Amino acid sequence: MMGPIWMTLLLVSTLGFFSWSVFRRLRQLKVGVPDPRFSWTGEQIADRTKTLLVYVFGQKRMPNYTLAGFAHMGIFVAFMVLLFNSLMLWGRGFDIGFDFWGLLSTNHLLGKVYSLVKELAAFAAIVGSFVFLYLRWVKRGEDSGDPKAVKDKPRMTLGHHADRYIFTEPILILFIIITMMAADFLYVGSSLVLESRAYGEPIHAGWWEPFGGLFAHLLDNLDNGRVVTGFQHVGFWWHSAFVLIFLNILPYSKHFHVLTVIPNVFAYERRPNALPKVEDLEGKVEREESLGINQLSDLTYKHIMDLYTCTECGRCSDNCPAYITGKKLSPKHRTLAIRDHLY
């Protein structure tokens, strides 16, 4: 398909750069001081694990945001499911028949079930991405973070001044997701066509590959086998490479929360004593110590993790009494300014 040399170059270059990016973010995280609120007893670890399963993997809060929430759930599930598919494609760069040693082979029930779930999840990701494009391009005025647009119902906004971001990083991310999923359908469909022609049989797309089968019937109209082979290579390369390109974009974008949300939610303190103790302000004044946070080194590592995980949705400002009454204070802009200074 691609050959071991090309696949090795792809993996080493992209994963190497990603490792360097993560190292930079971890080094910045060390600027923060330990947070005294945290306790790591067995009970606390169990409670944190439950919170992680419910709110991250269970996406409990997403249905509160109707259309955008369900779109987010579709994309999230797709990435979880297609992780194994991406690993399998990378493996096929070294062994064209790699399928996790037969575990995900479509000759067996497990492989067929996974193939069906994978295709449905990929389609859900495409639909979810188009929903976000609709919200950004068509509904951006309604969900632009304008205090006048705040409703009683919980919502997932597109952030303040969304007009400035119509053709920027979020659109690039959605473009990558849509084409990456479509590329997998293209790869499956062209592979079915080439396999059927090799055996001199009509295309047989099973129930486990509905969208790949649709692409196969479309590509079967091409008489030139080299063109079909070219589409197979394009589908394979595009999906294999853009998963890694997407991974490398994350540490430099608001989508970094894809990676940081798990440790951040795990470190989230939900108990009544989660708020920090009131500082000894009078004592600090007498000792001529600084009050509050004056520089990055005054932040805790949890504060910095919160900066990494910010999605720029603008809900913090939408619920800020000062902001919604016309004051200049914007929690979102303050958060982004601190994060930019950290970077």
Describe, in plain words, how this protein is organized in 3D.
The protein is 61% helix and 0% strand. The chain is elongated and about 90 Å long. Residues 143-166 have low confidence and may be disordered. The protein has 13 helices and no strands. It has one domain. The chain has 343 residues and is mostly helical.
Structure keywords:
343 residues, mainly alpha, 61% helix, 0% strand
What does the secondary structure layout of this molecule look like, with pairings?
Blueprint: H1 4-29, H2 42-57, H3 66-92, H4 109-137, H5 169-198, H6 210-219, H7 225-249, H8 257-266, H9 281-286, H10 301-309, H11 315-318, H12 321-324, H13 331-342
- The best one-word shape is elongated
The total of beta strands comes to 0
Q: How many domain modules?
A: 1
The residue ranges in which pLDDT falls below 50 over 5 or more consecutive positions are 143-166
Proportion of residues in helical segments:
55-70%
Count of helix runs: 13
Order of helices and strands: HHHHHHHHHHHHH
Strand content: under 5%
Structural class: mainly alpha
Straight-line distance between termini: 40 Å
Average pLDDT, all residues: 84
**Which value, in Å, is the CA radius of gyration?**
24 Å
Main sheet properties: none
Précis, in short:
The protein is mainly α.
